Amino acid sequence: MAATRAGRATTTRLGGALPVVAIVGRPNVGKSTLFNRVVGHRTAIVEDRARTTRDRLYGDAEWNGRRFVVVDTGGLELDPDDPIEARVQEQARLAIAEADVIVFVVDAASGLTPSDSEAADLLRRATAPVIVAVNKADNEKRELEGMEFYAFGWEDTYAISAAHGRGTGDLLDAIVWALPPESDQEVARKEREAQAEAWADEVAAGRLEPYIAEGPEGAAGEDGDGLADDEALGLEEAEAAKWDAAIAADSERSPAAIAFVGRPNVGKSSLLNALLGEDRSIVSEIPGTTRDAIDTRLAWGRSEVVLIDTAGIRRRGKVASGPAAERYSTLRALSALSRADVAVLVIDAVEGLTSQDAHVAGYAVEEGKGLVVAVNKWDLVADKTDRTFDQYTEWIRNEVPFLDFAPIVSISAKTGQRVGRVLELAIDIWAERRKRVATGELNRVLLAATERTPPPPVRGKRPKLFYATQAAVAPPTFVFFASDASAVHFSYRRYLENRLRETFGFDGTPIRLVFRDRASVKLPRRRKARAASSPAKSTRRTSAARTRRPS
Ligand code: GDP
Ligand code: GDP
User: What confidence score (pLDDT) does residue 524 get?
Assistant: First the structure.
């Protein structure tokens, strides 16, 4: 089968990687303050996500409609025993090798130091644009003092105060201006998100009518007068058919994109070789967007998959190991991840999972990517019993509880044991990530869940969940409309997520739960029915204010 597919080799450009913006500079100039200010300008549906790691080094940012990954290189695990100069130079080299835009942060309060100059010397060799952020320019006096940094010769030099937000808008404008052009895939993604947003807004405002399940007070159908059964069934069928068609079309266009990530020497390129072995033919190599990224399209069973940045995996495989190589592989992985549907986090069975692994996995989760944990070099684990794998799994689950949705598989790239399973899992997860749940079905589950355990009261008032609807796929995103969305406790959100997973699966993919206040506007059909039976209630509901997110 692989051979016949090889016949129609394709050279589709995949693209879609988010550009990487690296923040460099010596310690204490305000890199992480700037990072925190830049990250997090996201729209509501995207924003309401689990924060997986406290000290985040990578994050998605959005400004003027452009999205990019921001990396605080100062937070990468540089050797704290190295002198400051060496650490700053290391960051600069890293940024030069992998970033699309470099933000060089200096400190107006302390003035120009020798390690700033050394970093500047290195950064002059960068082909990526360099933007100088003269931080701590909290007032005009400081701003004037900061002028000395113009001596470095970069036209794009901005006096900012990361702590107070002074000048950061202009800096962000400059960053966005310097980014490489937007890919078609990125444009399409933004369109999808905007549609999901608009739709959820419409539903919330009562202008669009979601199918509401029949139910008693306080759950999915407070109104209690759901649609007639066959009417509802017809709606659901139509809804399902529409989605099925859209999903089928989507998979034709873009097969599962899979990124292998993990530290150097864990066996990524060995795994790649095992998968690309003799009897599997590579359909084509596709140039990616980052630097020299090459993606490989591969026939696998009845599916096709795209392995992201296979050149990078090979290249990094040959680079010496050690902390430096590790940091390069991290930046590269971020870029690969932004283009992937599913990440395969490869870890070394003997060495286990490191904090760097957890960071990369955390980024994948926040970005809503599917995830498989592949424990490689299983052949090296001594004295295995039938409990060994379970113990191993338990240990990983304890170390990184936020990965509890991800399947774990033990493999050996050397012997070939279970390597195919990795792709099978990834393909399954890709499908789970695109799965749609019909609104009626969803609300039946919501109803059962809220009946079993109602949301705990907050400030003496119990929030009510009215209904839910799936606003987006990849990752599956559910919008819950509630009487007081902000009062739905985190643990209750977790409870609802577990109920959804129990019923609908979504194995291996993060899912997002967004809570919105329900609008005061009521649906015409229900208003009539309700007005007759319980006018008091409608008045109360009409007065419920809907808090709009700030735009
Ligand atoms: P990093 O080591 O480069 O990541 O620096 P941090 O972001 O941790 O900041 C170092 C110190 O500088 C912290 O005490 C910050 O509060 C402070 N700082 C950061 N930005 C500003 C600023 O714009 N103005 C002033 N006055 N202090 C700042
Ligand atoms: P990468 O840097 O993650 O691409 O790692 P490589 O694929 O280059 O592998 C690093 C080293 O681990 C090489 O010496 C491989 O031969 C070895 N290796 C990879 N997979 C396995 C495995 O499953 N078992 C054993 N015993 N060694 C492996």
Answer: 43
